[in-house]
From TrEMBL:
UniProt keyword Coiled coil, yes or no: yes
Organism: Rhizophagus irregularis
Composition skew (Basic and acidic residues), residue ranges: 8-36
Keyword field contains Coiled coil: yes
This protein's UniProt keywords: Coiled coil
Positions of the UniProt region annotated as Disordered: 1-37
Protein name listed in UniProt: Uncharacterized protein
Coiled coil ranges: 75-102
Superkingdom of the source species: Eukaryota
Length: 134
């Protein structure tokens, strides 16, 4: 068993692979501190991202409210305009109907007068000298 060594034997050797327990703890403490710093940095970044996210969300909500208000205003404005135009169309349709009826009456009157003129020409009445007022 010449290959069996105790920690003290290894400790006493120079250039050996054994390191003091305190050295290992120091290295572990350094790694732990580095991990804590990294963890703290990540925590800070998360906080910054949360703050940015909250700010962007707030701006988005504000813009949505603004767009919603603008949309409502436009809808009200154009609804009134559309209603006005529909009333104008209805009024113009009524006017068109009245004009068509008047034209129809005028056409009947003209046809009736033409018929009378033809009949009177048969009897020799000359209308060139008579002033007709409408």
């Amino acid at each position: 068993m010449s290959n069996v060594h105790t920690l003290n034997d290894i400790k006493d050797r120079e250039g050996g692979s054994y390191k003091k327990p305190g050295h290992r703890l120091d290295k572990y403490n350094e790694q732990e501190k580095e991990s804590q710093r990294t963890y703290a940095d990540i925590g800070n970044k998360i906080s910054q991202l949360n703050a940015s996210s909250t700010k962007v969300r707030s701006q988005l909500i504000s813009e949505q409210k603004s767009h919603s208000e603008s949309r409502c205003e436009l809808e009200a404005k154009y609804s009134a305009k559309i209603k006005s135009l529909k009333l104008s169309i209805k009024s113009l349709k009524r006017e068109l109907t009245l004009v068509q009826k008047a034209l129809s009456v005028d056409k009947i009157t003209i046809l009736s007068l033409e018929t009378k003129v033809r009949c009177n020409r048969r009897y020799g009445i000359d209308y060139t000298e008579i002033n007709v007022r409408w």
